[in-house]
Amino acid sequence: MMRYNKLLWGLSRINLAMDMAPAASRLQSTVAEPASSGRVSHRERNITKKEESKSFVMNIFRGSAVTEQAIPFPDILTEEQKETLEMLIGPTEKFFRECNDAAKNDSIEAIEEQSMQSLRELGAFGLQVPVEYGGVGLNNTQYTRLVEIVGYNDLGVGITLGAHQSIGFKGIMITGTPEQKAKYLPKVATGEHIAAFALTEPSSGSDAGSIRSRAVLAEDGSHYVLNGSKIWISNGGLAEVFTVFAQSPFTDPKTGVTKDKVTAFIVERAFGGVSHGPPEKKMGIKASNTAEVYFEDTKIPVENVLGGPGNGFKVAMEILNNGRFGMAAAMTGTICYSFKKALDFATSRTQFGQRIDSYGTIQEKLSRMAMLHYVSESMTYMISSNMDAGSKDYHLEAAISKCFASEAAWTVTDEAIQVMGGMGFMKETGLERVLRDLRIFRIFEGTNDILRLFVALTGLQYAGGHLRELQQALKNPAANMGLILGEGTKRAKRAIGFTNNGTIEGIHPKLSDSALLLGRAVEAFGYTAEGLLMKHGKSIIDQQFLLNRLANSCIDLYASLVVLSRASRSLNLNLLSSDHEEKIARVWVNEASDRIQLNLTAVKSSVSQKNFSDLEAIAKELSCHGNIIAERPLGF
Amino acid sequence: MSLKVLVGCKRVIDYAVKIRVRPDKLGVVTDGIKHSMNPFDEIAIEEAVRLKEKNIVKEVIAVSCGPTQAQETIRTALAMGADRGIHVEVPAKEMEKLEPLHVSKILAKLAEKEQAELVIVGKQAIDDDTNATAQMTAGILNWPQATFASKIEKKDDFLEVIREIDGGLETIKVKLPAVVSADLRLNEPRYATLPNIMKAKKKKIEKMKPADLGVDTTPHFEVIEVTDPPAREAGIKVEDVDTLLLKLKEVGRI
User: Fold this and answer.
1) Where is it mainly found (chain B) (predicted)?
2) A537-567 pLDDT tens trace
């Protein structure tokens, strides 16, 4: 599971280098003069199609708050689905309570066999496999609830299960042929066969397009011959079924040109020529098997191509985008665990004559931990519900949820250890393992750094497309008067410092101040994003200092939206916890709004620009020198 | 030999929930409270399913009396391995006043209707703790009873049952048909696996009302008041053992 991520970078490069660059480069002339009459390229048509995105995050890059996927807070499960899910929770919790020992799994660096067997019997290996293939048939929202329990109890088990079903055989689920499904799903659903996802290679991490494994079609056309090696493959030493990505000669039917393209394959260990290295020694999730996997003249029948020849990149992206919410779900469970430890301690520990939860220092920590939990949980369920409702516009949100929840889990667990002091540092307390285990979540399935760039660049590309639409409209003003006037008014208002009334509709009146703050922040964000496009054109791709700050603002904006939506739901339903949630939402949005302002200012201000160029220079000097440059105060 | 077994399973407030008395003091708070299958009934279901797995039993029928949600309890039984369910609908309001005698009459009627040769129930429900249904059911049917079973074995045409009694174990033989009540150590119930829970959704649950079985559920008792157990009073700290002994003598404990 650790190895693949990287596609993202590859993806951004490809999309942006090809699609966005022309879009962005023309932006500068967009408003000033209509472009020379030209053909509408294939690429432009693509961009036009994307313009209907319902994604909130995508649309904030245009300064508009599109909230139909987020408000009201989605409630996707039917009564029957809820009832079923409630029945599933008991057995899942009982497994962790009675059959699994996370500390022991960590120390033996494997999941105990009896525990694996219980997981198989429980049905945990096929949670989303349709019932007709022997799985449990859960939708994403139901899956989320169970993954939370896994994340609460044992992330090592979580990765074993996740590498198996969230990515290992997910490709078969979402792009497999009926024959492939019938052949492979029943055995992976029961856990009789373990699955793995094999993308990352020694020289190919975040840049997944650079993989070197190669599969060549045999002369008789009946099978491919695969050679190559993969590293850091979760379940690599256990798996019987692999989703493998390899370069393969592909002839474009239109041009007739043959070149290597990534193709996805279903590879069985039984095909021969498949071997693996010893389990890797890791910082955390030690119970989960991670190994190198080698393919030597492995013969793959042509019917085992997954998603069509040459489509491997797309398949990989679909799998990863589809599974990303699951990591936020697991992290939400982990946050809950660490928080509970800290809370139990704080409400029983006495120092200086008072329980420590009576001190402001501890109170702030506890409240902030609960806030981070609230945001992570709200994001997770919003995204899983959107996916269950059939949305295709959730990729940026899913990337944000992965970044947010993995960082929140780190902060919360770190703070839980701090609240518990020396006790938190003791292995027996059970937090040090969790801290080690969850660290990987910021790295795999797209490092959080890559995901931030992915969010910022995809959003900018989208905004760029819209600016171009305006440019097109200006060519024929008479026919597009509405569009031009609308945009014109928006811009004119901004120019005189007068925003739309700017609030977010559908938020409970008790939170109207927060809704207004968010609405204004969205507009300010869109203005800044557009300004960046105008200023930098296609070279914005290289402005990572700026892109990261845009991405951080996106995260804060989306987080604010989900908490406002969720707290509004609770207020509308008059839930017992609604007052509590209202407070959480208000504090969150106030503080997020400040951070957004700070980040957006940093993107524009001359002081920040100077800081960024200095930081860039410092790094270059360090890289050149090969060590710390400043002399010790002692001089030696 | 292939028996048909009827197993009673009651929906009760989950054992882990802290019980709160209702403001009107005529019952406890049940709205929004987690419910699950009475643990002793889980043991009863488990035993029936094990007998089926040993090919001693042909069919296991899970019965529950209660409001709509009682079906969740039946689903759990089906997921554990029962073949089909019977839901005897009793609205929540009436359920509070449903007595062991009513349930026994219902079970007896169903046993006759289904031509069951064995009825297994938990020895008592953890909500009202009456410990009477098995005995009354046997009485109504005029069948032998084996209560507080901690081991059941089928031999020829009878059951050999080991019962937990004060001071030891008692082994008895009962002829079939019979009524058995399950004690804590009879078995450790399995947990329903997730795929089995999904499969159980396809199993049949028949619905009926007590009146359909000719059972009158008019209450014989009236609840006058339900109160919390007295709150524990604060203790005191004593300086040394001598004072402790003195204090204990004062309150007449030694």
Assistant:
1) mitochondrion
2) 889 999 999 999 999 999 999 999 999 999 9
- In this structure, which CATH number among 3.30.750.24, 2.80.10.50, 2.40.110.10, 3.20.20.70 belongs to the domain A196-314? 2.40.110.10
Domains A44-71+450-619 and A320-414 share a fold: yes
Residue A7 clears pLDDT 60, i.e. is over it: no
pTM across the whole model: 0.84
- Using beta carbons and an 8 Å cutoff, which residues of B are at the interface with A? 36, 72, 75-76, 79, 191-199, 201
- pLDDT digits over A74-117, tens only? 999 999 899 889 889 989 999 999 999 999 999 999 999 999 99
Report the C-alpha gap between A345 and A288 in whole angstroms.
30
Q: What is the ipTM of this complex?
A: 0.73
The CATH class of the A79-191 domain is: mainly alpha
Rounded to whole angstroms, the Cα distance separating A316 from A244 reads: 10
Could A95 and B72 be called an inter-chain contact, meaning their C-beta atoms sit closer than 8 Å? no
Measured distance between the N- and C-terminal CA atoms of chain B, rounded to whole angstroms: 60
Give pLDDT, residue B251: 87
Residue of B nearest to A91 (CA): B191
CATH number, domain A320-414:
1.20.140.10
Contact of B88 with B106, CB cutoff 8 Å: yes
Residue A492: band (very low, low, confident or very high) from pLDDT cuts 50, 70, 90: low
Domain ranges across chain A = 44-71+450-619, 79-191, 196-314, 320-414
Tokens 């096929």, residue? A126
Strands A258-268 and A241-251: antiparallel
Which backbone phi and psi does A389 adopt, to 5 degrees? Answer: -80, 0
Please give the biggest Cα pair distance in chain A.
83
Per-domain residue ranges for chain B?
3-227
Per-residue pLDDT tens digits for A451-478: 999 999 999 999 988 777 766 766 666 6
- CATH of the domain spanning B3-227, picked from 3.40.190.10, 3.40.50.620, 3.30.870.10, 3.10.20.600: 3.40.50.620
Total count of residues recorded for chain B: 254
| Percentage of residues in chain A having pLDDT higher than 70 | 87
Distance from CA of A191 to the nearest CA of B (A): 12
